[in-house]
Amino acid sequence: KKTITVQSEAKLSPEHIAFLKTVGISEAINVKDNGDNKKFTCKGDEYKLYTNKDNGITKVVKIIGEKEWYVWTDDHGKWNVPENEGKYIVISIDDLNSQLENNAARASKNYKGVYVKFTGYISTIDSDGDYISVKGNRGDFLKDFHCRIRDKKHKEVVMNKNSGNRVTIRGKITDVGEIMGYRVQVDEIK
Question: Alpha-carbon torsion 166, 171, 176, 179, what sign?
């Protein structure tokens, strides 16, 4: 037997509406009840509000593509939702590394295959110009992002850079691991 989930029109409680305003969500329209969550729209973006059996909010997520990004969770407090630039999600190297340190399996599930844009500092340039390693602001124990360069124009950009130079990269995260960190296939480098 297959179970079919039926969405029904719903309303958010005044308490939920007041709470959403505290995390930057000013309106909730087209609310649908999905059982364990209420899906709604705010300014063209889709969100889900999850509650426990006592109707207390456990998390609020923003849906970008097929991924859910935390806006707020009861165990972490307010999170920053990444800005969506077309297909590229603006991320922070330091934030993603912290998530990798906390739970590599979850980081892999959340970010493998995602198109991202980030800014960091070059730590290593491959002698053939095939890859660079980029670190965030916290250069301490966190792993570098290993960025594979495919395009000839991108290799020329890399040839004019030095270790320590700031770069902004757009690309796709192709692999995530607790030892190797994040691997990115570069689409653009500036």
Answer: negative
| Residue 110, CA distances (Å) to 14, 68, 87, 107, 133 in order | 32, 8, 15, 5, 21
Q: Which residues contact 166 (CB under 8 A, 6 or more apart)?
A: 119, 120, 121
Query: β-strand 181-189 against 145-148: which pairing, if any?
Result: parallel
| Predicted TM-score of the model (pTM) | 0.58
Residues whose CB falls within 8 Å of the CB of residue 42, separated by 6 or more in sequence, listed in order: 20, 25, 26, 27, 28, 29
Q: What is the pLDDT of residues 78-114, one digit of tens each?
A: 555 555 556 778 888 888 888 888 899 988 888 888 8
The Cα angle at residue 107 between residues 67 and 21, in degrees rounded to 5: 50
Per DSSP, what are the bridge partners of residue 72? 60, 78
Contacts by 5-14 with C-beta closer than 8 Å and gap 24+?
A: 5/34, 5/35, 7/32, 7/33, 7/34, 7/39, 8/32, 8/33, 9/33, 10/38, 12/38, 12/40, 12/49, 13/55
Tokens matching residue 100:
């990798």
Q: Tell me, what amino acid is at 102?
A: N
Burial (CB < 10 A; 0-12, 13-18, 19+), residue 46, is: middle
